[in-house]
Amino acid sequence: MKKSTFALLASISAIAFSPVSQADINEDLQNICTIVKNDDKSELRKKIKKVQDDYNLRLGDYYTGISCGGSSLIRYAMENGATEVGTFMIKKMSKGDLTQAESDGQMLQQWAEANGHIASPIGQELLARIN
Asked: Where is the signal peptide (predicted)?
């Protein structure tokens, strides 16, 4: 009887104190592409704050794991002219994160130059931040 009670308590404790599942953060980030496309800086700020508070993650920690139509968040902002959101994300990320090669092997600056976005306000913010 004592063994079964102990096993039950151990199971309940394991469930109650288990780490947050990956599905939870995916749910919290599910509409982030729409927020970026709509250039809704206020909503993006809320989303980033919620993820930071709930999971102790900064934007740079999950940035590479998000793809919007095959593009990273900042690339997606550039493609959609989402200036407020794009410049906000650049300010929130470290220089190291901004200069890393993305999934296609190109750094953000190289991609922006090759696709005509470097002269945009987001491209100019990127250059100012990494230089």
From this structure: 1-23
